[in-house]
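Thread: Newbie trying to understand structure tokens

Hi all, I'm a second-year student working on a class project, and my supervisor (Dr. K.) asked me to get a predicted structure for one chain before our next meeting. I've only ever worked with sequences, so writing a 3D structure as a token string is new to me. If someone could post the tokens and maybe explain what I'm looking at, I'd be very grateful. Here's the chain:
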Amino acid sequence: MDGLSHLDRRLTECRACPRLVEWREEVARTKRAAFADREYWGRPVPGFGPHDAALLIVGLAPAAHGANRTGRMFTGDRSGDFLFPALHDVGLASRPTAESADDGLTLYGTRITSPVHCAPPANKPTTQERDTCRAWLVSELKLLAPTLRAVVVLGGFGWQAALPAFAAAGWQVPKPRPAFGHGARVRLAGGPDREPLDVFGCFHVSQRNTFTGRLTPGMLREVLRTAAHAAGLHPNGPTELAAPDADS
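---
Reply by user tm_fold:
Sure, no problem. This is what the structure looks like when written as tokens:
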């Protein structure tokens, strides 16, 4: 078992935050009517994707009836219904849908994780829960460091959680800390054992943003293409990957 597999296994056993443990397990017991015949995961959700990823996508936390049900990041919810078609269009995912942990979906050079690994009530982790969970993200970043070259952070919460984690994992975060914004790009200096890291901001793929048009498929694809290019990934070829894309 490699280091990241071991980390993921340990993470799924975490019970550090009583409020999150109670909520994720309550949701798994009561279920949503549409999934009444399904067995819920009901545990912390580990990252998803290759262990030598060059690109990392950082979200917020698992959805109660999405990843908390399926056991895989952004799988089985509306946010994933928006994210995975974009990843597929850019050439970073083998298929545009994510329905279950055994649906055959593969990510290319890309891993997805979050700063909070348990589903929170009302999709709102507390600051203390965010900080308690940070050690998992720091450990994941350290294990990915040999190959990691770019990160897309979804939303302001993820941005605030990720920057301290980058610093703790060995990259140099500017002071004052860069502000979040859609399309923001910050290069973090590395060190003797760290290559520089390009960090991109993107509005979160929440229904609040996607239903209102604050984040369109074209906007998301543009950030993913730019970040993939910075990471050295060219699944559709260097020219196509870097080309601007119209909204759809």
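A couple of things are worth pointing out once you decode it. Confidence is low (pLDDT under 50) at residues 238-248. Strands lie at 55-58, 110-113, 150-154, 185-188, 197-202. Feel free to ask follow-ups in this thread.
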